[in-house]
Amino acid sequence: MSTIQPETSLSNHLHDERAIPTEPMVDGTSVPPGEASADFLQLLTPDGHRTPNADYDPWVADVDVASLVRLYEDHVVVRRIDTEAMHLQRQGQLGLWAPLLGQEAAQIGSARSLRSDDFVFSSYRENAVAYCRGVDFTDLMRVWRGNSHSGWDPYEINMAIPSVIIGTQALHATGYAMGCQFDGGDQVAIAYFGDGATSQGDISEAMVFAARFQAPVVFFCQNNQWAISEPVERQARIAIANRAPGFGIPSIRVDGNDVLAVMAVTRRAIERARTGGGPTFIEAVTYRMGPHTTSDDPTRYRNKEELDEWSVKDPIKRLEAHLSSMGALTDEVRAEVQAKADSVAAEVRAGTLGLTDPESLSIFDHVLSTESSWLERQKSQYSAYLDMFEGGAR
Question: Looking at 125, 145, 253, 288, which residue is catalytic?
Answer without folding.
Answer: 288
